Each structure stands twice: as C-alpha cells, then as structure tokens.
Automatic annotation (TrEMBL), chain B:
GO terms for molecular function: ATP binding; ATP hydrolysis activity. This is ABC transporter ATP-binding protein. SUPFAM superfamilies: P-loop containing nucleoside triphosphate hydrolases. PANTHER family: ALIPHATIC SULFONATES IMPORT ATP-BINDING PROTEIN SSUB, TAURINE IMPORT ATP-BINDING PROTEIN-RELATED. Residues 14-245 form the ABC transporter domain. InterPro entries: AAA+_ATPase, ABC_transporter-like_ATP-bd, ABC_transporter-like_CS, ABC_transporter_ATP-bind, P-loop_NTPase.
Length: 267, 266
C-alpha cells in the first residue's frame, strides 16, 4: 500500500486515507477550537461565571479536588459501580447471547422476554429498585445491569447468528461435534464483534450509572454533580463531566487494545 | 514432493442408490434430486457436471451428511451416511478457512480434533503445506491470502485430516481463469500423491474432463444422471490435454448433453 500523500486532491477524495500527522493534528485541533471558543465567551464576559465557569476556574477546582482526594474518592466509587455492573452483565450475556444466536430453541424461549425488556427505559425501574434494594451500591449496579444486559443479548445473538453456515459445515466435515460448535466455531468467529459490542455497551453503562447516581447515591461523579448544582458550583459539574468523558475515552481505547490483542486476525 | 507416510492411502467407495431429495412439503415443494444412483470406486476421481440448479451441490452435501435426503441410501466405505464426519472431507466453493487461525493452525485443525500428539501434527502440517506450496505462509492469517491460496489451504486442511473420500463443491468456481488453471494442475498433482476417492462438482466442462476418471452429466431440475462418460486420458495429465482432438470431442459430447437439458427446460 502506498503511503497516503498530502495534496488537496488526496484529502478531498472520498474514502481516501490521509497522512498520520494530519490525523494527530486534526485530533488536537478540535479541542483547541472547543477550548478557544469556551475561553472567548467566558473571559469576554458574554456569559456570567455563575452559569459557565472559565477554563481556569475548572482547572483550579480540579487541582483542589485532586489534592484533597475528593475527585479520587468519587471517581473510584463510580468506576467500581460501572465495573461490577458491566462485568456481571457481560459474564452472563456473552455465553447466553451466543447460545441464543446458535440454538433456535434458546432464541424462541428468550426472545419474547428480551424484546419486551429491552424497550423499557431502565429509568422507569429506578423507583422500584430504590424501594426494593435501597440506595446502596447494589441499586446502582442493578440499574446498570438492567440497562445493558438485554441490549447486549440481542446484539450478541445477532452476531452469533451471522456466522457463515459454510464455516460451521466445514468444521463438521473436519470432525467438530455439534456440541462443540458454539465454543470452537461460533465464539472465535464472533470474537471481534463481541469486543465491539462490549465497547459500545460500556458507554451505555456510564450513562445509566450517572442516571442512578443523580437519583439516589451518596458518592460518585453523578452525585457530586447534583450536590454542586444545589451549591451553584458549575465548575464542579464541568469537572465531573470531563472526568466521565476521560474515563470513557480510556475504556474505549482499552477495549480497542484488548480486541487487537485477543483477535489479531481481524482488522 | 517425496512420498511421506502422510501421503494418505485411506480411500473408500461411495454408493448412492435411488436418492431423492425434496425441498419443502405439499404443493409448493420442489423435487431437487430424482432417483440418483451411481457408485464411486476407491481411488476414483469422479466429476459431476450439470446446469446450475440441477442439484449437484445438494448431492454432495448429502454425501457429506450436511443435508438430509428424502429417500434412498448413501453409503461410504459400506457405512450409511447420516451425519457429517471427518472420514468425508469437503472443500467448499465459499472460502471456509477459519479466520481466527493461521494457515498452519487451519491445517492442523482436523488432526487436533482427533487428538494427535503435537509432533505428529507438525509433521502433517509441514507435509501438506509443502504439497500445496504454501510452507512460507504457515503463520499468515487467511485474510492475508489471495482467493487461490485460500483454496489451496482448504485442500491441504481437508487432506491433512486423512479423509476416506474428498468432496469438492466447485472449489475453483470463485477464482479467475488463470488461477483456476493453476489450481487444477495443483489438484491433479496432489491427487496423484494421495489417490483419494474424489467426488467433484463443477459446471466447467473442461475442468471436469481434465480431472476426471469418469464424468457424470446431470439434467436440470429435477436432477437426474443423464449420462456417464469414462475419461481415458493417461495420467499424470497436464493442461496441454485441452487441445487434443479426443478432449475436444468429449467436450462437444458433454456440451450437447447439457444443451438438450436446456431445451428440456424451455
């Protein structure tokens, strides 16, 4: 493959690759634009600091919260809940989803329930969970599991179902038994997609976490945002949002790396 | 390529007796195969040609045990076929290498299922990758190979499992004509070494005559065996054969048979 060239024609050609330095440059540029615009409208006084803090207010607030350990305390609380909820959900949904996509009998049994559940907004369950479970960590974990489990199942079943039939037939003619098909063929064939599904649903897990923390929690990034709202500390809200964004970016990259390592054959 | 102990000699006969295949039930059902009967002898290279939709691939899937016949019997090495099994290797028209395994691991797949020790598996893989000329690509993934190379690995993978019969469903159908000729030459050479019983399906008449000991010509739907033609050219054969007068007259004969089939349909 020829290395991408930098010319007006090349960069305006649909689907054409662009040079690597340009990707990095543009990736930085978008943030320069965002922060510059933010600075312009805050430092100029267009919008009062009470509603939109200046960048340096957010930075100094963040530094202060790092020093006194508050940021760490609430970030780790949130990460813990997301992690537990996500792992508990995925540990069940991955094998179950693959079986659902492979065996029609499992699909016929679960489909009616799954398709009912996945259209219910998980937020509507929050009052119920608070009544049943209280406002501890278990409640937030439950919200996350209910938020992503059924979505994961549907996507995983789809990916298992799309494994080419001739791949399975070839495996049969090489001595693979029907009982081994799920783990010897369907699982490895679906692996790249499984990582993509996990990556996407991890993002949703963060969304549901914040929802749960806003409603009922005594720790977490959603909780300090809510507290900050009551005290008009918009800079704290900004800090919490930025933190969630950064954590999202890190987990996203983590899953990309994991996929590259676990499924090196897939592009 | 020197003969090694892995130049397998296991080879069996296929007996197909009055096989019918009907898709669906009731008035909308379609009769795909209508009373197919023929034998393939051990070590024989038997090719089925026929118009598209005549059920020739379905017949192969029946022998593989990947589809279920409506009536009749199929036996391989004296045993009735009911399920797929490793004694009936298959090469498909679609690319069916496992994308998550390297070339070597793909070839190793069958022996591994059988529980062969690692050292023996390595010998087998080395032997068959050399047979198809892909030793250098042992550590590549299928996505890094061309179509022709993928099918060479698929042939090596099927043979490495030491099947008693080798079923080939238009394995070169998706390849360009240049590559297809190379592959036919390679298959002839590999087959000379292994002498497996082969049942090969194609719609390419030249390919059929070039490879076969015997060509079975099928009619259009419902599929029936229209004629059986024994091919007597000396082996080992090569591509030059296609210009021989005898080759051309055989080709004409089969073309006429297939033309009649077209007329039947209209």
């Amino acid at each position: 493959m020829k290395s991408p060239s930098f010319s007006f024609r090349a960069i305006t050609t649909p689907f054409e690759q662009i040079p690597k330095w340009m990707i990095v440059f543009l990736g930085v540029a978008i943030w320069v634009v965002v922060i510059a615009s933010w600075s312009a409208i805050t430092y100029s006084g267009m919008i009062t600091e009470t509603f939109l803090p200046t960048p340096d207010m957010v930075v100094s607030r963040t530094l202060k919260y790092i020093q006194n350990g508050v940021l760490w305390e609430h970030t780790s609380a949130s990460v813990q809940v997301v992690f537990i909820g996500f792992v508990l959900s995925s540990v069940v949904s991955v094998p179950l989803g693959l079986f659902m996509g492979t065996y029609r009998i499992v699909q016929a049994f679960l489909d009616p329930l799954v398709n009912f559940m996945r259209y219910l907004p998980v937020t509507s369950f929050v009052p119920l969970f608070i009544l049943w479970i209280g406002i501890g960590i278990e409640q937030r974990v439950t919200v996350i599991i209910f938020g992503i489990f059924f979505q994961q199942l549907v996507m995983l079943a789809d990916t298992a179902r799309s494994v080419p039939r001739d791949l399975v037939n070839a495996a049969y003619t090489l001595g693979t038994s029907r009982a081994h098909t799920v783990f010897h063929i369907v699982l490895p064939a679906s692996l790249p997609n499984i990582f993509d599904i996990l990556r996407v649903t991890m993002g949703w897990a963060w969304t549901y976490l914040v929802v749960a923390e806003l409603v009922a929690a005594r720790s977490g990034l959603g909780y300090i945002s809510l507290k900050a709202m009551r005290g008009f500390q918009v800079d704290v809200i900004f800090m919490a949002i930025a933190m969630i964004g950064i954590l999202g970016l890190i987990t996203d990259q983590g899953f990309r790396l994991l996929r590259k390592y676990a499924a090196p054959w897939a592009l | 390529m020197a003969k090694s102990r892995y130049a397998n000699l296991r080879s069996a006969d296929i007996v197909i007796d009055d096989v019918h295949l009907r898709y669906g039930t009731g008035p909308s059902s379609v009769l795909a195969l209508d009373g197919i009967s023929f034998d393939v002898k051990p070590n024989e290279f038997c090719v089925i040609v026929g118009p598209s939709g005549c059920g020739k691939s379905s017949l192969l899937y029946l022998v593989a045990g990947l589809e279920t016949k409506t009536a009749g019997t199929i036996t391989v090495n004296g045993k009735p076929v009911s399920d797929p099994g490793p004694e009936r290797g298959m090469v498909f028209q679609a690319y069916t290498l496992f994308p998550w395994l390297t070339v070597a691991k793909n070839v190793e797949y069958g022996p591994k299922r059988k529980g062969y020790p690692a050292a023996e598996r390595k010998d087998i893989v080395d032997h068959f990758l050399a047979e198809v000329g892909l030793s250098k690509f042992a550590d590549h993934y299928p996505s890094q190979l061309s179509g022709g190379m993928k099918q060479r690995v698929a042939i090596a993978r099927a043979l490495a499992n030491d099947p008693m019969v080798l079923l080939m469903d238009e394995p070169f159908g998706a390849l360009d004509s240049q590559t297809r000729h190379t592959m036919q030459g390679l298959l002839l050479r590999v087959w000379e070494h292994s002498k497996k019983t082969v049942l090969f399906v194609t719609h390419d008449i030249e390919e059929a005559i070039l490879l076969a000991d015997r060509v079975l010509v099928m009619s259009g739907r419902p599929g029936q065996i229209k004629k059986e033609i024994t091919i007597n050219f000396d082996r080992p054969r090569n591509m030059d054969l296609v210009l021989e007068p005898d080759f051309i007259s055989t080709k004409r004969e089969i073309l006429e048979l297939l033309k009649d089939t077209d007329d039947d349909e209209h």
